[in-house]
Amino acid sequence: xxxxxxxxxxxxxxxxxxxxxxxxxxxxxxxxxxxxxxxxxxxxxxxxxxxxxxxxxxxxxxxxxxxxxxxxxxxxxxxxxxxxxxxxxxxxxxxxxxxxxxxxxxxxxxxxxxxxxxxxxxxxxxxxxxxxxxxxxxxxxxxxxxxxxxxxxxxxxxxxxxxxxxxxxxxxxxxxxxxxxxxxxxxxxxxxxxxxxxxxxxxxxxxxxxxxxxxxxxxxxxxxxxxxxxxxxxxxxxxxxxxxxxxxxxxxxxxxxxxxxxxxxxxxxxxxxxxxxxxxxxxxxxxxxxxxxxxxxxxxxxxxxxxxxxxxxxxxxxxxx
Length: 321
What we know:
Layout: H1 3-22, E1 29-36, E2 46-54, E3 59-62, E4 68-69, E5 72-85, E6 88-98, E7 103-108, E8 112-115, E9 122-123, E10 128-133, H2 160-191, H3 198-212, H4 220-239, H5 248-255, H6 263-281, H7 288-320
Antiparallel strand pairs: 1-2, 2-6, 3-8, 4-5, 5-6, 7-10, 8-9
Helix pairs in contact: 3-4, 3-7, 4-6, 4-7, 6-7
């Protein structure tokens, strides 16, 4: 074969390969993570950000880590509202992390699952970022810290009597204000009607929902929607999370802050709300057994968290006594 024919054959092969690559369909979900300040020192906080881009119609579920992300502790996190970019829905999450071990560390993005209509749920490929944690000792030469001996300083003025007088006056003012506040609080407590406990309201709503027999007549969407609203209302009344318009992911992220919910309760709540979303938004048709299991899960969640509240109240009363 001549040299000219060889060049023509190579060009034809490259053109064919380019056509195959160009015809490849875009991935339903892509992830991109980045680190702001990828060279922190020990104990210095830095931000880890992750963006998940999804094609129209694709449902995305981002797993919320509880305590750690890789080798780093989670001290704070947040959820940004979804935005539309280049015809895709972009979901953004951020975490504020801190590390205590110097050296190179790899951070793999939290697991992301997605569901394409008509297909099985899949895992999105992770994105790994690298962070180098530096020692606070640095590499400076110790000889640069040698300085001349400073001269004698003047004897400072003794301000301790003024400090004592000011502290005494502040304590008297605080005592007077505290007594007045306690009196007003006692008067309000004597006249105000004690509010009903959140778990009592939720239990009454669950009983009313069961008496409607919605699954038996095929009203599964109404049943799951009402059941989800009862659990959300209970969490709002119990933990003060006022978020009726939040998505399930944002609601779980808000309720997982601090130590309000134990890990087992967060897992039970996440599974229940995810199943409710499938019925409400993905047109999933459950069975009577599925609806009964969902109702039992909601009832158990309310009972378990209410029992934890009663135990804490009894422990506090015994400690006070």
